[in-house]
Amino acid sequence: MTKRDFLSAGDLGRDELENLLELAQRSRGKRTSQVLAGKTLGLIFFDRSLRTRVSFEVAAVQLGGHVINIFADREMYDLEPEEQTVMDGRAEEHVKDAARTLSRYCDALGIRQLSRTGSWEKDRQELLLRSYARYATVPVVNLESSVEHPCQAIADAMTMQAHLTRLPGRRLSVVWTNNPEPKNIGPCHSLLRVAGMLGMSITLCHPLGFEPAQDVVTAATRDAQANGGSLRIVNSLDDGVRDAEVVYARSWGSPKYWEDAERESIVKRSLQSWIVDESAMAKTRNALFMHPLPVRRGVGASDGVLDGPRSVIYDQAENRIHAQKALLTHLLG
Ligand code: CP
Questions:
Q1: Which of 167, 203, 257, 269 pairs as cysteine with 264 (C-beta 3.0–4.6 A)?
Q2: Which of 219, 247, 224 is nearest to 316 (CA)?
Q3: 143 Cβ partners below 8 Å, 6+ apart?
Q4: 120: which residues sit within 8 A by CB, 6+ positions away?
Q5: Does the CB atom of residue 50 touch ligand 1 within 6 A?
């Protein structure tokens, strides 16, 4: 049997995504199952995490499995992802050797690596993640890369479905917010792909210069149109939130400024009004407020919105467990 990886939201077809969401909704409230009995999940973190690490661990344990967390920066050798290189630099081990070895110990691997080499063309290739997927003989799951955060997007879709029931045609606004540091664009990309497949009416709202990757926007637009939805782009916060049924706030660092973080930081000084606060939410159709977290309070969203009655941010965080139980069952069950 060939192994299945989950590296991108685009790895799922629409039917498969809907089946996964149904399984995730069913797994809510069920605390035990033995789908992963006797199996070990290896989670490798090259970057920090609260929700992804803990929710995967809880999900695996609730399915009867066992988890090994590896904090790569202090517990692993530096890895070489390039092919056919002479390894006389910093890297002491090739990814192929690490991936093949870990496949003898673990039944699935999760990798988080937010590569920021300064070159978008290089980082968008997800060299390390793709190299792990190529050489591991067990399923590999993307726990967030520079390009995507597909596990977050399944939990996001599950959360919207739980609150709105049917998603086709519902008005989702994906809103860029300010942040002093460049934040990863993966959650935005994966959400666009999943919302497109589900036929939502998407408004992508960002200041000029903070465009997501064009290939992701093109694929999401194509999927949305094929499923009865749409994707439009606006460059004003007021236009972005008007009449929304869901406001999904998130900051992201743009591919345009990938090679010049200082320039991005200067541009953002004039974008401090890009915060989702009560006045922005008042322009919506009593929208749900979503954010993948972590969030800087008073910068990306106001306390009143984050703690308000339409905020579902902790449902999103909890749904990571249920969505990942469904995913692990799908990959390993
Ligand atoms: N949303 C999310 O992935 O959170 P962490 O970075 O804490 O895992």
A1: 257
A2: 247
A3: 43, 45, 49, 52, 56, 110, 111, 112, 151
A4: 255, 258, 259
A5: yes
Pick the residue whose CA is nearest to atom 3 on ligand 1.
52
The pLDDT tens digits along the chain (333 residues) read 689 999 999 999 999 999 999 999 998 877 668 999 999 999 999 999 999 999 999 999 999 999 999 999 888 999 999 999 999 999 999 999 999 999 999 999 999 999 888 899 999 999 999 999 999 999 999 999 999 999 999 999 999 999 999 999 999 999 999 999 999 999 999 999 999 999 999 999 999 999 999 999 999 999 999 999 999 999 999 999 999 999 999 999 999 999 998 999 999 999 999 999 999 999 999 999 999 999 999 999 999 999 999 999 999 999 999 999 999 999 998
Give CA–CA dist 72/99, Å, rounded.
13
Structure tokens at 287: 């929208």
Query: End-to-end alpha-carbon separation of the chain, Å?
Result: 13
Q: What single DSSP character describes residue 178?
A: -
Which amino acid belongs to residue 161?
Q
CA 188 / ligand 1 centre spacing (Å)? 13
Judge whether 178 and 205 are in contact, CB under 8 Å: no
Residue ranges and CATH numbers for the domains of the chain are 9-148+320-332 (3.40.50.1370), 150-316 (3.40.50.1370)
Q: How far is CA 301 from the centre of its chain?
A: 19
Q: How far is the CA of 89 from the centre of ligand 1 (A)?
A: 32
Amino acid at 149: H
